[in-house]
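Regression test case RT-17, inverse folding.

Input:
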């Protein structure tokens, strides 16, 4: 019992210390629980998607903490999502505010990450975001993604905890099972609408 409590506390600390900002240098990391080499091979070979499973739109409702995938208006898949630590405080205004953006974007890149299981980068900041930040004399930030879990939760044992809290730096975190479903169904250019 004490060991489980210690492990849960350590996991919680790691959860809140991890985020989704700019990737950090980790020296020579050639393999993690996420099989980075295998992930990169998928991207290089172009076998990261299945044309029969392609979707054309992702919708996120921040208040509901829900992400949904659509194809020709039909719901294909829905899942729970965690937001930035200040995800319930409104639209992203500037770098470092830990808010998740709201608006219309596109998926612009897939990324294999040694810290977080598979990431789909969105086109934040768009022209409107940049103009608003400029008017406020701040930087809009960037590198906002939909991503899987931190590597300490590679097997999903803490999904109930991680998906019940907002903990990212502004990204949208889903279970590894959900990011796998998105990964195979999404190609660059897919639209994503993020609502309050």
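Golden output:
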């Amino acid at each position: 019992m004490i060991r489980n409590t210690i492990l849960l506390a350590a996991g919680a600390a790691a959860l809140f210390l991890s985020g989704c900002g700019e990737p950090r240098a980790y020296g020579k990391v050639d393999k993690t629980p996420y099989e980075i080499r295998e992930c990169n091979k998928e991207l290089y070979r172009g076998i990261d998607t299945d044309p029969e499973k392609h979707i054309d739109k992702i919708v996120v409702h921040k208040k509901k903490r829900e992400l949904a995938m659509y194809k020709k208006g039909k719901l294909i898949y829905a899942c729970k999502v965690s937001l930035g630590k200040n995800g319930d405080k409104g639209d992203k205004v500037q770098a470092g505010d830990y808010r998740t953006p709201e608006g219309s974007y596109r998926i612009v890149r897939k990324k294999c990450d040694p810290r977080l299981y598979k990431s789909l980068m969105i086109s934040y900041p768009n022209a409107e975001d940049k103009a608003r930040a400029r008017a406020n004399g701040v930087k809009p930030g960037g590198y906002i993604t939909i991503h899987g879990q931190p590597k300490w939760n590679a097997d999903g044992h803490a999904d109930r905890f991680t998906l019940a809290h907002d903990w990212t730096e502004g990204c949208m975190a889903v279970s590894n099972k959900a990011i796998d479903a998105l990964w195979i169904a999404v190609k660059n250019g897919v639209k994503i609408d993020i609502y309050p």
